[in-house]
Specification:
Strand order of the largest sheet of chain A: 1-2
Order of helices and strands of chain B: EHE
Number of strands of chain A: 2
Number of domains of chain B: 1
Order of helices and strands of chain A: HEHEHHHH
Chains: A mainly alpha, B alpha+beta, C alpha/beta
Largest sheet of chain A: 2 strands, parallel
Strand content of chain A: 5-15%
Distance between the termini of chain A: 26 Å
Distance between the termini of chain B: 40 Å
Helix content of chain B: 10-25%
Structural class of chain B: alpha+beta
Number of helices of chain B: 1
Radius of gyration of chain B: 11 Å
Oligomer: heterotrimer
Number of helices of chain A: 6
Radius of gyration of chain A: 14 Å
Strand order of the largest sheet of chain B: 1-2
Largest interface: A-B, 37 and 32 residues
Structural class of chain A: mainly alpha
Number of strands of chain B: 2
C-alpha cells in the first residue's frame, strides 16, 4: 500500500479507533488480502507507517454483500456494476473476509 | 438506519479495480462520514 | 485530410539490472528508509542475466524478434518456457535489447554537461562494442570516449563519496558515476539527472532504429514529439523540457525541431494524436513520436518477486518511436475523425472511462465493438504484476471493454470470453508506465494490417493523473489504426476553373429564372 495512504489510515485509525471502516476496491484477490492485512494486523512488507501497527480495523471489499447493501443502487449501477462482470467479486470478498475474521474488531455484520 | 450509519469510512480504490471516487458516489448517502478516499495505480 | 500514414515504428529495450537494483524506485526507497535490509540483500540474487532476458519471450515480442501472433501461441509461463537460441537475438525487426554496459556508454554519449564520468578502460571497451551496433553513429561512438567524460576510478570515487554523485555499476564493480548538477537544486540532483539522461539515451536509441526502419535520412525529419514521464528542468521550471530536441540532436536530426507532450501513461496516445493532427494539417511534413524509458519504474514490484523466490523481471528500460507522414494510400493509417476523449465531466468510474474511449468513438464512426479486430488498452506483462497482487492489467482492461459491449448489447454475456480471446491483446511490455499503455501494439497492428490479417485496431492510453496530487481525475485517449484505402489523386484547381464553374452555375440559375 502506498506509504502516504498508510499514514492516512494510521492517523484515522488512531483518532477514531474501530469506528473506522475500510472499504477496498482492489482488482486482485491477493492484493486485496495484503491491503486487508495492512489495515488490521499491520504492513506485512514492513515498509510503511503501519509496519508493526495492528489497527484491527473492520475491512471489507466494496463487492461484499454487506457493503453493497448500503450503497445507492442507482450510483452502483452507473459507477460499479460493469466491474462486477470484470472482476471476481466472490474471490475478492472472501480474501478480505479471511483477514477480517482473523484480525478485525468491531466488524459490522 | 443503515449499518454504516455513524461510521468513519476509509476508501482505498484502485484504478484497474474500483476507483475511490466511484465508491464515494455509492456510499455518500450511507449515513457514514467519508474520512478519505484514494485511488492507487500499480502500473 | 483526417488520416495520416504510419510509415514505421521502433521498439527497444535497455537491460539495466545493476542500475535498476540501486536506483529503481522501490530499491532506492528501501535503501533510504533503512528498514528493508533483508530485501535489499536478497534482490541481487533474483536478477535476470542479459542472456536470460534475450530468451524471455515478452522481450523478444517487444523488439520484434518474434511476431505478436507467435507470442500469443506460446506456452506459459514464459519464464519457464524460454525461447530457443535462434529466436533469442539482440536485434529484432523493430529494435534491439541492448546490454547494460553499452547502455551506460550511450548515456555518457548523451551527456553535454560532464555529468557522466566513466572509468577510462570501461569507456574505451564499451565504445568499441557500441561501434558494432548498426544504428549507433560514428559521432556517438566518439562521444563515449571524450576525455572530459573519462576519469580514473579514484576521481570517480571522490565524486560520489564527497560531492553528492551516484556510482554506476557493471559486473558488480563501480565503472563510473553520475555527478550532481547543482549543490542545492532538488531538480538537478544526481538521481534526477540519471533518470533524465537514461530517458534521453533510450529515446535516442528508439529514434535511431526508427530512422533505420523507415530508411529516412536524419536530415529529412521535420519534428519530434517526446512523450515519456520524465521531467527535465531546474528549480525555476521543474519540468520545463525539452527531451524531444535533446534526442533529435544526438540522433543527427539537425533540421528537426521538437517539443514534449505529457499525460502520465496517456502521454503517448495524446502525443500520437497531436503529431497526427500536425501532419494532417500540413503544419509538419513528418513527425517522429518518441519516448525513452524510466529508471524509477525498474524493479517496482521486486519486493514481492523476492519474497516469493521469483526472478525479478522488471529490468529493462523501454522505449519506442513512431513515424507519421501524410497518407498516400500505401501504409496503415491513423484516423483523426474519431478519437476517444475522456472529458473532465465523464468521471472516473471504469464504465465511464471505457465508454468514452471505446463505445463513443466507435459509435461516431458508425462501427461496433466487433468491427475492431484488436483492442490494445494496456500491455503490461502479467508475469511481473500478478505475483505483486496487481493482477493481470491487460486482461482486466479487455474484460472492461467486453463487459461494456455486453451492457451496450453489442454482444451477449456468454460470448464475453470469446470476445476477449478474439479481440483482446496479451501484455508483453515492461512496467515502464507510459510505454505499456497501448502504444507497443502500434507495430504489431501495422504488421498484421500489412499482411492482410486484420483491418482495424484500437490503441488506448489511460493515465492516473491523481498520482500528481493535482486533480482526482484520470485521463484517457484512443485512436483507430486501419488498413489503407487508395488515395484519389489530388488535381489542382485553377482560378480559371473556378471562374468557369461560377459562370456555369449562374447560367443555370438564370435559366431557371427565365
Amino acid at each position: 500500500m502506498d506509504l502516504q495512504n498508510q499514514q492516512r489510515v494510521k492517523d484515522a485509525g488512531e483518532k477514531y479507533g474501530t469506528d473506522c471502516v475500510v472499504i477496498l476496491g482492489s482488482s486482485d484477490a491477493e492484493g486485496a488480502e495484503i491491503y486487508a492485512e495492512t489495515v488490521t494486523a499491520g504492513d506485512p512488507t514492513y515498509a510503511g507507517p503501519l509496519a508493526g501497527v495492528s489497527l484491527e480495523l473492520p475491512v471489507y471489499h466494496v463487492f461484499d454483500p454487506i457493503i453493497r447493501a448500503e450503497c445507492d443502487p442507482a450510483a452502483w449501477e452507473e459507477q460499479i456494476s460493469m466491474m462486477e462482470m470484470v472482476l471476481d467479486p466472490e474471490a475478492l470478498t472472501a480474501a478480505v473476509k479471511g483477514m477480517r475474521d482473523q484480525y478485525s474488531k468491531n466488524a459490522i455484520e | 438506519m443503515g449499518k454504516l450509519a455513524g461510521k468513519k469510512l476509509l476508501l482505498l480504490g484502485e484504478r484497474d479495480g474500483v476507483p475511490g471516487p466511484a465508491m464515494e458516489a455509492c456510499l455518500k448517502d450511507s449515513g457514514a462520514e467519508i474520512i478519505f478516499s484514494a485511488t492507487e495505480c500499480f502500473v | 485530410m483526417s488520416k495520416v500514414g504510419i510509415k514505421s515504428y521502433s521498439y527497444c529495450l535497455n537491460h539495466a539490472p545493476e542500475t535498476g537494483s540501486h536506483y529503481g524506485g522501490t530499491p532506492y526507497e528501501a535503501f533510504h528508509s533503512g528498514k528493508e535490509q533483508e530485501y535489499l540483500d536478497a534482490l541481487p540474487k533474483h536478477l535476470q542475466s542479459y542472456d536470460h532476458a534475450l530468451h524471455y519471450a515478452p522481450n523478444q515480442t517487444y523488439i520484434g524478434g518474434i511476431s505478436y501472433e507467435e507470442f500469443e501461441g506460446l506456452k506459459t509461463p514464459w519464464v519457464d518456457n524460454l525461447l530457443p537460441d535462434e529466436k533469442a537475438k539482440r536485434y529484432g525487426k523493430f529494435g534491439e535489447l541492448m546490454p547494460e554496459d553499452e547502455f551506460l556508454g550511450l548515456i555518457s554519449a548523451c551527456d553535454e554537461f560532464e555529468l557522466v564520468w566513466l572509468e577510462k578502460s570501461f569507456a574505451e571497451e564499451v565504445s568499441k562494442k557500441l561501434a558494432e551496433d548498426p544504428v549507433i553513429t560514428e559521432a556517438i561512438v566518439k562521444r563515449v570516449v571524450r576525455p572530459k567524460n573519462m576519469h580514473e576510478l579514484s576521481e570517480i570515487e571522490t565524486e560520489y563519496k564527497e560531492r553528492a554523485g551516484l556510482p554506476l555499476y557493471f559486473g558488480g564493480k563501480v565503472v563510473g558515476c553520475i555527478r550532481s548538477g547543482h549543490p542545492t537544486d532538488q531538480c538537478l540532483t544526481a538521481h534526477v539527472l540519471m533518470e533524465n539522461l537514461a530517458g534521453k539515451a533510450s529515446g535516442v536509441l528508439a529514434l535511431l532504429h526508427l530512422l533505420k526502419n523507415s530508411g529516412m535520412n536524419p536530415l529529412d525529419l521535420d519534428f519530434v514529439i517526446e512523450c515519456s514521464e520524465e521531467g527535465a528542468g531546474d528549480v525555476g521550471q521543474r519540468a520545463g523540457g525539452n527531451f524531444a530536441k535533446a534526442i533529435a540532436e544526438v540522433a543527427g536530426c539537425t533540421n528537426a525541431s521538437g517539443c514534449d507532450v505529457r499525460g502520465f501513461c496517456a502521454g503517448p496516445v495524446n502525443a500520437m494524436i497531436n503529431a497526427a493532427a500536425q501532419v494532417a494539417s500540413g503544419a509538419r511534413k513528418n513527425i517522429a513520436v518518441v519516448a525513452g524509458g524510466s529508471i524509477p519504474k525498474l524493479y517496482m514490484n521486486s519486493r514481492d518477486h523476492v519474497k516469493k523466490g521469483l526472478l525479478a523481471l522488471e529490468d529493462c528500460v523501454g522505449s519506442f518511436a513512431v513515424l507519421l507522414v501524410p497518407d498516400d494510400g500505401t501504409m496503415p493509417v491513423m484516423r483523426l475523425d474519431v478519437l476517444g476523449k475522456h472529458t473532465v465531466g465523464a468521471g472516473g468510474a471504469p464504465q465511464a472511462v471505457t465508454s468514452a474511449l471505446t463505445f463513443e468513438p466507435l459509435q461516431k464512426a458508425g462501427l461496433t465493438f466487433a468491427d475492431v479486430d484488436r483492442f490494445a488498452p494496456e500491455l503490461q506483462n502479467h508475469e511481473i504484476t500478478e505475483p505483486a497482487g496487481a493482477g493481470n492489467v491487460p486482461l482486466a482492461n479487455i474484460k472492461m471493454i467486453a463487459a461494456l459491449a455486453v451492457m451496450k448489447k453489442a454482444i451477449e454475456k456468454p460470448a464475453m470470453m470469446d470476445f476477449i480471446k478474439q479481440h483482446g491483446t496479451i501484455g508483453y511490455a515492461h512496467t515502464q508506465g507510459h510505454i505499456p499503455a497501448g502504444v507497443p501494439f502500434i507495430g504489431p497492428a501495422c504488421e498484421m494490417i500489412n499482411e492482410g490479417k486484420i483491418k482495424r485496431a484500437m490503441i488506448i492510453g489511460k493515465g492516473s493523473l491523481f498520482l500528481a496530487r493535482l486533480t482526482n481525475l484520470a485521463d484517457g485517449a484512443s485512436f483507430l489504426i486501419e488498413k489503407p484505402e487508395p488515395v484519389a489523386p489530388t488535381s489542382a484547381v485553377s482560378k480559371d476553373d473556378i471562374k468557369a464553374m461560377i459562370l456555369e452555375a449562374l447560367g443555370e440559375i438564370a435559366g431557371k429564372l427565365a
